[in-house]
Write a structure and sequence with these properties.
By secondary structure, the chain is α+β, with helices and mostly antiparallel strands. The chain has helices at about 15, 75-80, 90-95, 275-280, 305-320, 325-335, 365-370; strands at about 25, 35, 45-50, 55-60, 110-115, 125-135, 140-145, 160-170, 170-175, 185, 190-195, 215, 225-230, 240-245, 260, 260-270, 285-290, 295-300, 340-345, 350-355. GO terms for molecular function: hydrolase activity, acting on carbon-nitrogen (but not peptide) bonds, in linear amides.
């Protein structure tokens, strides 16, 4: 994570672009973003890249540009004491020139889609988060429209409570009472809440519920160095990122976390289907990989169903990757694996499992034995739907 700084769009000149850490640079403009809906197969890519290349991508937070905040980020943030020059010009332009239907569309702004050469349906796309830079020294945490974990209880009275949150000395800062000194400090861990690939067909998904395409998965493990694997649905993948966060607790109970814009450098790599199956088994939805963990996911509007789907995804991963018998893998998960609630506020709830790869350091991977002629186990072969529930 770089030193805190305001990162304006990079001018289109060779000297400025030479300072970009990625192989390409993609600004956030009305021509390069979608607001409220996610890409699908019929969308034209805003950038074409080769397999394995990286892109430095500007992202814009929805906080400060939404209709219930006035759809005028300059007025909204200066009313919070932010200097006019510290309000991002791309956020101002998007709010002023783009429209969405608040009753029909989601709130999120995503940058993309990006066409990755060679990506085909059935492959996995690996998105490696190489660098995240804070674009401004502030963000917003909101509980709005009767949403959140305590629907009908909070917020009390007002339909929208948005808490402006400056960053001080590398930490978020909140007061105990409105108007008082900000004595409550919490650490930052920047990540992109939305990372996805286009869905097949002509219907643009709502930006709120996550799914097999990724989207608004809100997994806070996706910090610098983490990788996200997504099942490709259309040629070229048509990848996108957005919903930037400075911090989020698992659950994201108030509806949003510390929402604030990031400049992200992401590397995009195609994992061909045959290799993906040998490495991970059948990956039906988002899977994260950190330095320590493999992280399968489960999603459903019912949190209990999401939990069961995550357990099945974890069993599939362990039996395919290490050839462990299913009942033993089940026992391992019960004894050694944490199942965390990603979020409960995005229509579709999310659960993710943290499987320590070091626990299997003494086991030969099935992909290695397969290369010598042995047969790799793929675990339970019972028919399942695309989300892991029994068909």
């Amino acid at each position: 994570m770089s030193v805190l700084q305001r990162l304006s769009p990079i001018p289109d000149d060779p000297a400025a672009l030479a300072q970009v850490p990625g192989d390409h640079y993609l600004p956030a403009t009305p021509a390069t973003v979608r607001w409220g809906r996610l890409p699908c197969a019929v969308d034209r890519p805003v950038l074409h890249i080769a397999d394995g290349e990286s892109v430095t991508i500007d992202t814009v937070s929805h906080e400060g540009i939404l209709e219930d905040q006035g759809k005028d980020p300059l007025a909204y943030f200066t009313a919070q004491g932010v200097a006019p020059e510290a309000v991002l010009g791309d956020a101002v332009e998007i709010a002023a020139t783009m429209a969405r239907d608040p009753e029909r569309d989601g709130p999120h702004v995503v940058t993309g889609p990006i066409h990755v050469a060679g990506a085909a349906a059935g492959d996995l796309l690996c998105l490696t988060v190489e660098r995240l830079e804070r674009r401004v020294p502030y963000g917003v945490i909101s509980n709005r429209h009767g949403k959140g974990a305590l629907v009908g209880e909070l917020p009390r009275g007002a339909g929208n409570v948005s808490v402006f949150t400056p960053v001080k000395d590398g930490a978020g800062a909140l007061p105990v009472h409105d108007g008082e000194d900000r004595l409550v400090r919490f650490g930052l861990a920047e990540f992109l809440g939305t990372m996805g690939v286009a869905v097949a067909g002509e219907e643009h998904p709502h930006s709120v519920p996550p799914g097999a395409h990724g989207g608004n998965i809100d997994i806070n493990l996706l910090t610098e160095g983490a990788r996200l694997y997504l099942p490709v649905q259309v040629a070229g993948a048509l990848a996108y990122v957005g919903d930037p966060h400075f911090a989020q607790g698992d659950g994201e109970v108030a509806l949003t976390a510390l929402e604030a814009p990031l400049r992200a450098t992401v590397r995009f790599e195609v994992v061909p289907r045959e290799r993906a199956l040998a490495e991970f088994g059948e990956v039906a939805g988002p899977m994260v990989r950190t330095e320590e963990y493999l992280v399968p996911t489960g999603m459903d509007p019912d949190l209990n169903v999401a939990m069961r789907r995550c357990v099945r995804a974890a069993l599939e991963l362990i039996t395919a990757r290490w050839g462990m018998e299913e009942h033993l893998a089940y026992a391992y998960l019960s004894a050694a694996t944490d199942f965390d609630i990603s979020q409960v506020v995005d229509i579709t709830c999310g659960v993710h499992a943290r499987i320590r790869e070091a626990d299997f350091a003494g086991v030969t991977r099935t992909s290695d034995t397969a290369s010598t002629g042995a047969t790799a186990s793929t675990g339970d072969t019972a028919s399942t739907d695309t989300n892991g529930e029994p068909a």
